[in-house]
Amino acid sequence: MHELSVAQEIARTVLRIASEKGAKGITRIEVEVGKLTFLGIDQLRFWLEACLEGTIGAGSKLVFREIDPVVRCRTCGYEGGIKEVEVDPALHLMLPSLECPTCGSTDVEIVSGRDCLIRRVELSI
What we know:
By secondary structure, the chain is α+β, with helices and mostly antiparallel strands. The chain is built from 2 helices and 8 strands, in the order αβαβββββββ. It folds into 2 domains: about 1-70 and about 115-125, hypothetical protein PF0899 fold (2-Layer Sandwich), CATH 3.30.2320; about 70-110, no CATH class.
């Protein structure tokens, strides 16, 4: 249930920004969520709405954008998306494979897809 703690931090941050700017309200919050965070967007939305309830952020439009993982291979230089591996066909459980899809090396650097960022906050002043 790490969605709750992430939602609490997002709420704290946007409310602090709004306070520093003297805002009367928060109209829109845009968040980028990397797929490698394994955060559930629906759960994150639910908890963020709950955290903003009773504040100037209540009722603000929440926009989430999922960011696909990108890796860079230190062995062959590949940079791009990763493969998903089916762990349990009966459960349709897929997990990301952090190996180079070109050469199979596990010496890869994650370039994107593991962050959760507040990209934009719109305030009413």
